[in-house]
Hints:
It comes from Intestinimonas butyriciproducens. The chain is α/β, with parallel strands linked by helices.
Amino acid sequence: MCKDGIRVVIADDEPITRMDLKELLSEEGYQVVGEAADGFDAVEACKQSRPDLVLMDIKMPLLDGLSAAKILFEENLADTVMMLTAYSEREFVDEAKHIGVAGYLVKPIDEKSLVPSIELAVARSKDMRKLRKDMEKVSERLENRSIIEKAKGLVMTREGMTEQDAYDYIRKLSQTKNLSMRRVSEIILLKSGG
């Protein structure tokens, strides 16, 4: 994965940590597009810049990193979130996994492991997004097929048509009215109360 073009927001209440991370990431070819000292500012920075990656501390004032990460995922404001924290307690790790955090690094950060960890987390997140999109497409196709099948069955019963004739009837209506077969099927079902 090419580091160039990967846009990063750094959220940590320690200015020194933010500065060190920004310097390190910039040297490695990442583009730091925002910084934040608490979870609220992190969410705002992500609303403005829509980063590829957020590196976020867990313990921050006002809104902690895990709560902020949850908001980022719910509002689709960042592709990948990694937690940087001094806390390695099981409860934090479990919550991070549950929310969908892609990486968890314990401070002090080992500079040699930071970049490989980031690259793996970003690649994994990209794969997961693609998988979700593919599943949504398959789900939509199945739903379309189900609705068309119901309408086809209704037309067969109501008009005494064969399965192929009922399908052709729906397809012809779709072409004539410039509507999808699903929409034509929905109208047929709506009209019949089905």
